[in-house]
Write a structure and sequence with these properties.
Residues 1-29 form the signal peptide. The protein is mainly beta and 390 residues long. The protein is built from 5 helices and 30 strands. The structure holds beta-D-glucopyranose. Beta-D-glucopyranose is lined by residues 107-108, 118, 250, 290, 328, 330, 334, 354, 356.
Length: 390
């Protein structure tokens, strides 16, 4: 049974949560306000400097029992802490301790992704009769916006408090032609922690020329705590009867295949590890799960339920709601034991997983997929809400 989150926080506070909160190295550091309920103004500290001297800041915010640290570099969620069923906090998001590691070798840990989440075939598409060639950075394809995507930009960050919400506005203007994309894209992302401890992301963008856009967030979740090992015993459900199969380069074939009778059937919650070693061609292509699920609800005016993740050992749960039509479930297949996380331990394959709400990969080349075209005068708006429980 899922307990009411506010009840848990109140109960934990009564049981003396201050001691429990020291559970991870970053737990104390992230608590900017000193209270477990939070709600204070976000706190800014210097995190590091890029090679050209540009300052990168870290912002700590806390509300409703959820604590997070966000970097101006890439809009990266460096840590996100939530309590388990006994009120013990852990950082449930994979990341690094230093800016140098993010710059040198991050597989998009915690980052904002743009202009286009996931792959575009050979980095090419045609819009209104004009052919565009994007930056190619994944074999012959363009991945997550190209070589210098939004994950590698320093965003302008502005804190806010609004009613019982606490948050950050992140702004980035991507110039016409950046990474091959047409149009100057003005992007504003709001990260909000609500009084219930939900983390809400609101994306907005406008353009001065017709373009394509597909923004998402690339947090790697491990609800048992980052550095605690594999997520294969986490249980996942995805509200999708179909997914988009891919070719060997992970580009969708254009088919919307039924999940029924395949390892891709997460309509009822099941452990991630249950079918991950099934010798299914699609699992082989992804070296695990690395696919877009076509959510049954499709594009919706308001965020609707997409997926639920649960760690049976800690009791922590994450529910995701979005108005996007797709969800990329990536089971951390390319983590290979070469990166050391914030907990001082090595990340290996399957030590974290991503649930990226999005339009479908390669939509600019797939006329049957929901459109990702944005035109002057229109405003791109999408919202994803992460709700935590235990
Ligand atoms: C993609 C993976 C890719 C990973 C990068 C995911 O969104 O689907 O194929 O390797 O991002 O870390």
């Amino acid at each position: 049974m899922e307990l009411n989150r506010r009840t848990v926080i109140a109960g934990a506070a009564a049981a003396g949560i201050a001691a429990a909160a020291a559970g991870t190295g970053t737990a104390q550091a992230a608590g900017g306000t000193g209270s477990t309920r939070g709600g204070g103004r976000p706190v800014k500290t210097l995190f590091g400097r890029l090679a050209d001297g540009t300052k990168v800041h870290s912002w700590s915010l806390e509300n409703g029992g959820t604590r997070m640290r966000v970097l101006s570099y890439g809009g990266i969620v460096q840590s996100l802490e939530v309590p388990d069923r006994r009120g013990r906090y852990a950082n449930v998001s994979l990341g690094f301790d230093t800016l140098e590691e993010y710059v040198a070798s991050s597989p998009y840990f915690g980052a904002l992704i743009g202009r286009y989440g996931n792959r575009i075939d050979k980095g090419r598409f045609t819009l209104d009769g004009t052919a565009y060639q994007l930056s190619v950075n994944d074999g012959e394809n363009s991945l997550h916006g190209g070589a210098q995507g939004f994950d590698k930009r320093v965003w302008d960050v502005e804190p806010f408090t609004r009613g019982s919400d606490v948050g950050l506005y992140l702004h980035h203007t991507s110039v016409d032609g950046e990474m091959g994309y047409p149009g100057t894209l003005r992007t504003k992302v709001a990260y909000t922690l609500t009084r219930d401890g939900d983390w809400r992301i609101d994306y907005e963008a406008t353009t001065d020329k017709a373009t394509v856009v597909n923004l998402t967030s690339h947090v790697y979740w491990n609800l048992a705590g980052e550095s605690s090992g594999s997520v294969h015993d986490h249980e996942l459900s995805i509200a999708a009867s179909r997914y988009t199969p891919v070719d060997s380069g992970l580009i969708p074939t254009g088919e919307l295949a039924k999940v029924a009778g395949t390892p891709f059937d997460f309509r009822r919650a099941k452990p991630i590890g249950r079918d991950i070693r099934t010798a299914h061609q699609q699992v082989l292509y992804g070296q695990g799960f690395d696919h877009n699920w076509a959510l049954d609800k499709g594009v919706t005016a308001r965020p609707e339920h997409a997926a639920t993740l649960r760690d049976p050992s800690s009791g922590r749960t994450l529910r995701i709601a979005t108005n996007e039509p797709g969800l990329q479930f990536y089971s951390g297949n390319f983590l290979d034991g070469t990166l050391v996380g914030t907990g001082g331990r090595v990340y290996r394959q399957g030590d974290g997983l991503c649930l990226e709400t999005q339009h479908f990969p390669d939509s600019p080349n797939q006329p049957s997929f929901p459109s990702t075209v944005l035109r002057p005068g229109e405003t791109y708006r999408t919202t994803t809400i992460h709700s935590f429980g235990s």
